[in-house]
Amino acid sequence: MPASHETLAASLTDVPMTRRELSAIVSDSIGIGQTWIENSWGGTVSSLCRAGLAVFGPIKGNQTTFVRRDAWVKKWSEFDAEECAE
To answer: Taking the model in full, what pTM does it have?
Structure first.
């Protein structure tokens, strides 16, 4: 995982944050523009979700929020994709 993703993941907590709130915290320190964090069609936050580090939190107004997966999902099981396909 790129260092920028690790920094973003480390910024997530059990408090739901919008993409804009996350970008305000980390965009300068990770050296990528706020657009890549705030982009709703992908961007870095979706990469964290695909990696199992972030999950959707409750809606805040009309904004999606994200939280650390391990802070909200207590019973998490990893599955082997090839094994599941059988």
So the answer is: 0.69
